[in-house]
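Appendix C: a fully annotated inverse folding record. The material below is reproduced so that readers can follow the format used throughout the book. The structure is listed first as tokens, followed by the designed sequence.
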């Protein structure tokens, strides 16, 4: 009776069941997985609320790509970061998840393939399944720092490969795409008619400096490319539901892609008028939220390095974003470590297999966590490891 797209097992896993039991018993959990900035104890300026006191939101004037004023605000956001992005290349969406759905509709037929990084955020398979598209992983490899395994990626390209997804910086590894990697990727994609999809939501949260990193694909000319971001991360406002994509590449391909994307967007018209009217003021007010997130991520990273020094844990190199990966002894599986921390230390972390790490044993924690919770949680984690 129902679509075969819904083939996932809805039953809660052991970690979810253990966490539910702890919460039912009213145990105080030190949650080191916090990813929602509105739950992280940040200060949100009153200007965010005042941004919606705008009479323009009382009129509905549908624009498939987004209102000119909102798109101009996004263009100005790029300009402030040193990138010239024409308004005519910016298309608004309700979220980056919706942007992925639009792009899968644009680029693929049922049964086509998309290459996605491993490890990375566990979202692509669900989004691709909804479009009847296959996901194939390409590895990120670690040798004191993360890099794309380009030979393996090249060998994964097939006749039905339609796009390569880059998460830049990656979640959770925090690694940026480097200039040499981008040159190699465009050389692979351009002659094959394969697009690059660059998820850049964490690009503003650099933890280190590196002149060789790529911060955006906006303006790329060698092959068709789509750069995505949104208020959820850049302003710490996931509830506002405003994202965008920038269409780049050779002129003919870019124009055709734009025309088809507008058609897709016109079918749904999902971006609300109020958030578009408020976009410029939300982006401006978001600077204060973003600054708090950067300061917290840097401080918690320093705290974590001090906490694990001399312990059995090792923090893998991280360049940006707000997550870190801890390599822990393989005497237990990631699931066993996670359950033990929850059961004996009331600490919640994420096992590496949530992000499709290829080997054991890794734990992922969020640098967005409130400092007092992060400090106590790391101390308990290290004690449990010992």
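Designed amino acids, in order:
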């Amino acid at each position: 009776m129902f679509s075969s797209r819904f083939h996932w097992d809805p039953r809660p896993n052991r970690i979810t069941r253990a966490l539910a039991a702890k919460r039912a018993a009213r145990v105080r959990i030190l949650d080191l997985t916090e990813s929602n900035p509105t739950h992280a104890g940040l200060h949100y300026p009153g200007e965010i609320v005042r941004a919606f006191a705008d009479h323009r939101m009382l009129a509905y004037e549908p624009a498939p790509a987004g209102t000119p004023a909102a798109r101009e605000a996004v263009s100005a956001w790029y300009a402030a970061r040193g990138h010239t992005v024409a308004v005519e290349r910016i298309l608004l969406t309700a979220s980056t998840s919706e942007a992925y759905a639009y792009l899968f509709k644009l680029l693929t037929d049922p049964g086509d393939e998309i290459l996605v990084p491993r490890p990375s955020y566990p979202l692509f398979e669900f989004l691709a399944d909804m479009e009847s598209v296959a996901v194939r992983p390409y590895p990120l490899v670690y040798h004191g720092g993360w890099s794309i395994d380009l030979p393996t990626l090249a060998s994964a390209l097939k006749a039905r490969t339609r796009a390569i997804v880059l998460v830049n910086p990656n979640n959770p590894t925090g690694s940026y795409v480097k200039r040499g990697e981008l040159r190699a990727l465009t050389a692979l994609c351009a002659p094959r008619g394969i697009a690059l999809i660059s998820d850049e939501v964490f690009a503003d949260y650099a933890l280190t400096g590196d002149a060789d990193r790529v911060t955006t694909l906006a303006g790329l000319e060698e092959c068709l490319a789509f750069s995505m971001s949104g208020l959820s991360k850049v302003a710490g406002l996931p509830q506002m539901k405003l994202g965008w994509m920038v269409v780049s590449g050779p002129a003919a391909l870019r124009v055709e892609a734009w025309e088809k994307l507008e058609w897709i967007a016109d079918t749904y018209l999902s971006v609300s008028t109020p958030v578009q009217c408020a976009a410029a003021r939300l982006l401006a007010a978001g600077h204060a939220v973003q600054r708090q997130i950067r300061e917290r991520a840097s401080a918690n990273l320093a705290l974590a390095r001090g906490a694990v020094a001399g312990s059995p844990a090792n923090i893998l190199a991280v360049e940006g974003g707000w997550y870190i990966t801890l390599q822990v002894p393989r005497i237990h599986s990631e699931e066993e470590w996670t359950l033990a921390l929850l059961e004996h230390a009331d600490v919640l972390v994420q096992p590496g297999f949530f992000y499709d790490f290829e080997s054991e044993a890794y734990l992922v924690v969020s640098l967005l966590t409130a400092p007092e919770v992060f400090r106590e949680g790391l101390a308990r984690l290290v004690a449990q490891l010992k």
